[in-house]
Amino acid sequence: MAENTAAEEVDLDLEEAPEDEIVVLARKWKKKRGSLIMALHELQGRLGFVPRDQAMKLGREMGVPLATIYEVLTFYNYFKLESPGKYIVSVCTGTACHIKGSPKLLQGLEGELGIKAGESTADGEYHLQGVRCLGCCGLAPLASVNGKVYGKQDVDDAHGLLGQVAVDQPTVSAAAEPVDAE
Amino acid sequence: MTDMIHATINGVAVEVAPGATILEAARQVHVKIPTLCKHPDLEATAACGICIVKVKNTGKMLRSCCTPIEAGMDILTETPEIVEVRRGVLELTLSRHPNECLTCLRNQNCELQSLAADFGMTGFALPNVVPDLPLDCSTQSIVLDPRKCILCGRCITVCQQHQNVWALSFLNRGFKTRIAAAGDIPLADSPCVRCGQCSAHCPTGAIVEYDETVPTWKKLQDPEVHCVVQIAPAVRVAIGEAFGFPLGSNLTGKVYAALRRMGFKAVFDTNFGADLTIIEEANEFKHRLLEGTGALPLITSCCPGWVDFMEKFHGDMIDHFSSCKSPHEMVGVLSKTYYAEKMGIDPAKIFVVSVMPCTAKKSEIIRSKEMSSSGYQDVDVSLTTREFARMIKQSGIDFVSIPEEQPDHMLGAYTGAGTIFGATGGVMEAALRTAHFYVTGEDAPRVDFEMTRGLKGVKEGKLTVAGKEIRVAVAHGLANVEEVIEKVRAAKEAGEEPPYHFIEVMACAGGCVGGGGQPYGATNELRTKRAAGLYQEDQSGLWRCSHHNPYIKELYAGYLGEIGGHKAHELLHTSYQVLPEYKR
Fold first, then answer.
1. Which of B50, B272, B378, B583 could bridge across to B333 with cysteines, CB 3.0–4.6 Å?
2. Total tally of structural domains belonging to chain B
3. What are the strands, taking DSSP E only, across B343-444?
């Protein structure tokens, strides 16, 4: 660990121009064995998914063939190869939320957005998913959108929820919320 | 000898060296354990489970391909219980394999089919659920049919570990697992160099050569077309395997005869092209060595898999590459120029077929505009040894008994130096024979350069020619190239004297005798036998140095002019470019 840090600092000192994020990320993980998955986690954390050009760049910087990167990316459900949408709408399907009618809320959102859970809208604006317990059962039934929790929802008013989201988060860039994480 | 391991297999005592697997130990005492994912040439992937055996002492069932035998183990391989487990493995495998044997290129030559026969399968116990996956013909050299894949992982092992290409890997997991190129792009857009080792190691029809027997037959049957053919060195010592000949039999004369009966108007030999390559390449080497006309080390370029690999992964080595075309391209261009002119045939009507141990040759024939320097595509179709074997079987020729014939000497006479091109180190040895003559003006007292022979991954050697030390290296199997190239690069960066003057690289282990288009089942034992067939011909031949070939002399005197001259350059040389590893 200490060695790696020292090496990074020396390398960084030599570079004056602002560096590509991928280069920095690759340098951080390159020297640690078995770190590809961590680098990919970080990449997806920033972008919401792992685009091919970024995977290619990461591979080049880390010296890992694309074949290997995609072996990992496709092995784990967690990783997304395509943009999941700007608004990632996660409806909690944990026990408490379920009892409080979250399936109905999910159904309502499916109707509002015209997609099934696990899908994204054609315009790439919304990705809808059911997720396991989000750990705030006191607020059941709840949904979270791009990490912001919307508690004590009216399960019959999916439209209202989406309206509230539009007010709270008028501009969103690529989301950082993990998708389908379990 | 005290470390030897003693155990029992089916009650028979066995003694093996430590580290030997149960499978290896069983073979030693003539016990046959069925295998499917395990190829004797590759490390075990332990993917299928059909080689399961039972250890009586512990009651454990183990995969014999990957389990080292331990002292005192009492192993059973054929109880009803074991057979039932194996049958289950086979039934599961067959349940997701398309039942298309009759129309598969691997029909009667498929490890899964043989296993089903060995197990006496008379029906399917499970419903057939074949994944709906598309065929990938994008390389026009190798065809991927992932539906037929049994997920053994052999192609991946050889592509990644032995060839260091990393074109293939598994995607997804569980029931959805499949083979794919570089994260699901067409193989042609991946780093694939078309070496075809994946196809040579595949147990089923999931990866096969891009079959061009049908278009070849069409041309042969067209009275307007003048078909000529050439065979590569390594084909002659492997084709016999498809007809039950002893391994390594050299069947050159029979091949010529079969090709004439198929309808080829002229039968040439790529060995002639190999001699010609040596004339040009040794000349190139002499000039680089004595006059500094180009970068040293000089690196051979007759292997298209290696050329592709270099262009994708070692673009900084382009200056070191010999500009000589490969032997079959030389014969190709001369068929449509020299031969056409001499015989008074319109080159537009000439169709050149080359029979090669190689799938990469199929891509080489269209790799750059220099492959059409006759004004037409110089080689029209490149067939693999496997396709050629099928054509013989389709043609009604009794290959076993057909009497031997001679080639058409104009582009078919050759020396032993041309023959040994088919084995790793052969190009280097042939080049040294002629380079010695070019540098000193006389033949080497001994033309056998043993340091270049054998199956060691990287072979290095030194010799003194005219008081000058010449250092050479020979690498085969692309994963072995790295250490050689790295040394060259390091010396270059440090501004030091290059570690070598001359390097030979062949993409496939063993060189062309182990090529990706050769008959199945190559192991080092088989590669050695095929190579021995070539060295034997070299030893017994009249001419052993390329510059002794009288037909080559005639070619220069009557057509090409000077060695390395203008016309030779126009027809026999090529150039290279840096290629992207991934096209998407």
1. B378
2. 3
3. 350-356, 381-384
**What tens digit of pLDDT does each residue of A62-109 get?**
999 999 999 999 998 789 898 877 888 999 999 999 999 999 999 999
The Cα B491–Cα B499 span in angstroms is: 7
Residues 6+ apart with CB under 8 A from A132: A92, A93, A94, A182
Is B549 domain-assigned?
yes
Q: Does B181 touch chain A (CB under 8 A)?
A: yes
Of B172, B183, B584, the CB nearest to A67: B183
What is the arithmetic mean of pLDDT over B427-433?
98
Q: Which domain holds residue B137?
A: 94-209
Architecture of the domain delimited by A87-168:
3-Layer(aba) Sandwich (3.40)
Count CB-CB contacts under 10 A for residue B172.
Answer: 16
Q: Which two tokens stand for residue B520?
A: 């199945």
Instruction: Please give the residue of chain A at the shortest CA–CA distance from B187.
Output: A67
Would B84 be classed as within a structural domain? no
The residue in chain A having the minimum alpha-carbon distance to the alpha carbon of residue B182 is A67
- Residues B39-57: tens digit of each pLDDT: 999 999 999 999 999 999 9
* B183 touching A (Cβ < 8 Å): yes
Q: Do A66 and B171 touch (CB under 8 A)?
A: no
Q: Is the pLDDT of residue A7 over 50?
A: no
Smallest Cβ distance to B182: which of A70, A74, A75? A70
Q: Does the CB of B186 have a partner CB in chain A at under 8 Å?
A: no
Residue-wise pLDDT tens digits, A140-154? 999 999 888 999 999
**Among B209, B232, B252, which residue terminates a domain?**
B209
Which ranges in B222-262 belong to alpha helices (H)?
Answer: 252-262
* CATH label of the domain that carries residue B468: 3.40.50.1780
Same-domain status, B406 and B442: yes
CB-CB contact of B568 with B555 (8 Å) = no
* Closest Cα in chain A, distance from residue B183 (Å): 5
ipTM for the whole complex: 0.91
Q: What percent of chain B has pLDDT over 90?
A: 98
Quote the pLDDT of residue A175: 45
